[in-house]
Each structure stands twice: as structure tokens, then as C-alpha cells.
């Protein structure tokens, strides 16, 4: 598969990825290599990765416990301390081998250590391949507020090897799929339609679906790296999705939702809003709703859940001047950004979701 050029770094795929990495190591005089992993990628991905690495340099592996709850500044402090103890300097290279938690956190650690050292992302979940590792956003959560602290800074390269997906649990695969569906809905109608009949998808050809998703994300980010306009389209499904995700996370009576599971609900709700703003028609809405519902289990909302979810919306960092701004689809494959939506319509969307 052909490499994709991002703003100022390449994205290499499968066998080409390791070739490119080894050339990069030869061409740059690094002092040491630090590989940041979580407990799962240390177990499942390190054994696959290390044999490809051709280098005489010392390699140190830094592991933290898996899970979004550890994507915080305390974990960063621990890693900055370990880097310091192990003698990391400005010429050290950090390789982030893991899902979005590792790439987000590892990218932030590298971007801030000694005012920034080189880093490379090797995403190992579907979500991190098609979304988190592309676009230069790094950061950590602040309490329940997702990605509240962070920087935009790009890696030297992103290496996507789909073989890592072999050990990714099914529910995590479904979570990543939500971002692929989103890429179709906001940017490429034909791509969206390929997911409508999941049974007919040739999974041997799943690599090309991943490739197209990376291409879409990259094309959007290249046009608007700092999220002034078109990059906001990537927030489709996320305005409500994030609030739902946070609410389920902090509510003891609810099972925690994976990111993509919350986004899937968010995309149905925000499509309903698009319908009511006459941006899509009934047929398009029912195609989206039934398409998404055929992949994800229904999430149960009670009447009393909705008010606190609306309150959480206010904390969404994408709010500007206190207004909640939505990116809504304007016909499948196109998007309209900066749309304000009255609370009443959001409530209607929740009621429709339940029906
Ligand atoms: N920076 C961005 O632009 C951006 C975009 C989207 C999402 N994100 C962030 O990404 C994170 C979610 O990413 P995620 O879904 O990859 O979560 P994750 O990193 O927590 O990975 C999910 C689970 O899979 C495990 N895992 C990872 N690779 C594995 C493998 N190959 N085999 C077996 N298990 C494996 C992990 O240990 C974890 O338990 C969130 O924190 C989100 O905010 C960032
Ligand atoms: Zn997302």
C-alpha cells in the first residue's frame, strides 16, 4: 500500500512501515530508543514489533497500566521521571506502540520532555489506526474532562501494521469502526455505503477500508490543522457522543461505554438534528439510523439521564463563547459546521433514539 503524506510526516503501511522506520533510524543519530506501551501492548505487540527493529541502540520499554483512566498527568509525571532516570536526552526517540491512549499520552510526553523530542506512532487498535494517531493531537484527560490538556504536534512518522489487530477484542474493533462510519458520513458517501451491508464486507480487504479512512482523516486535517473550519467536521457525532461518554463514565449505575459506542449514539442523535434542520431527508436519516443500529447495541437512556448529559455539553472544549456548536451532516458525505441547536431539539433526538 502506498504511503500517505500528512502535513509534515509520512504514514507508512504494513511491510513498508518497518523498512521506513529502519531507514529513519539509520539517517538520524539518536542516542537511545524508548518504547512507550500499556500493559496489553507490552504483552501482545512488543513481541511482534521488536524483531523488525534493526538498531544497535539501547532500547528501553516503558509500560503503564492499560485504560483511559490512566490517560492523565500523573502517568506522564511517572514517565517523565523514568525517562530522566534512564538518561533520556534531546536526541532520544520515543516510539508509542499502542492504542489511542498510548499515542495520545506518549505524544504529549514526547512533545513536552525537554521542550520536545522526536516521536513515532505505531497504532495497534483500529481506532488509533484510523483516527487517534493521525492529525497531531496529543494530550491527556483532566479528571472526567477528556483531552482537556494537550498540544498539537506531529510525529516523525506513523506506522500502520494491521497485523496488530489480530489480538484486539471485538468490542474494541467495533469502537474503531464508528470512526470509519463517521469518515464516510462526513466526507465520502460511497465509502459509507460500503458499510451498509456488513455481512458482504470482504474482511480480507479490510486493509483497504482502513487505508481510505486514514486518507479521509488526513485530507481533512491537511486542509485545517488547527481546527478553524473543516477539521470541525470530525466532531460529527462527538458533541453529544462525548457528553454521553462522560456521563456513563462518571455514573456508577451505568456500564462504561467505549468511545466508539458513545459516538455511534451521538451520530444517530446528530443525524436526527440534521433531519430536523432539513439538511438530510427521511430516507437518508433512516439509512443512517438503521445502519448504525445494526452494528451497535441500543444504549438505554432514562428520562433523568438527559438533563445531566446536556449539562456536560457545556464543558465540551469545542464550545466557543459559551455556545454549543454542532457539525451536522448536510447530505451524506458533506458537512455543515458551527450549527447551534436548541435544547428542545436535542431532547427530541433522545426520544427518537429510544423509539
Ligand atoms: N488524538 C486524536 O486525534 C484522537 C482521536 C480519536 C481518539 N483519541 C483518543 O484515543 C483513545 C481511545 O483509543 P483506543 O480505542 O485505541 O483505546 P486504548 O488505547 O485504551 O485501547 C483499547 C484497549 O485495547 C488494548 N490494546 C491495544 N492494542 C491492542 C492489541 N493490538 N491487542 C490487544 N489489545 C490491545 C489496550 O490496552 C486497551 O485495553 C481515547 O483516549 C481518545 O480520546 C484521540
Ligand atoms: Zn472519536
From TrEMBL:
Cofactors, names only: Zn(2+); NAD(+); Co(2+)
Record organism: Flavobacterium xanthum
Gene Ontology MF terms in the entry: 3-dehydroquinate synthase activity; metal ion binding; nucleotide binding
Location of the 3-dehydroquinate synthase N-terminal domain: 63-174
UniProt domain 3-dehydroquinate synthase C-terminal: residue ranges: 176-319
UniProt superkingdom: Bacteria
Pfam families with a match to the protein in the record: DHQ_synthase (PF01761), DHQS_C (PF24621)
Protein name in UniProt: 3-dehydroquinate synthase
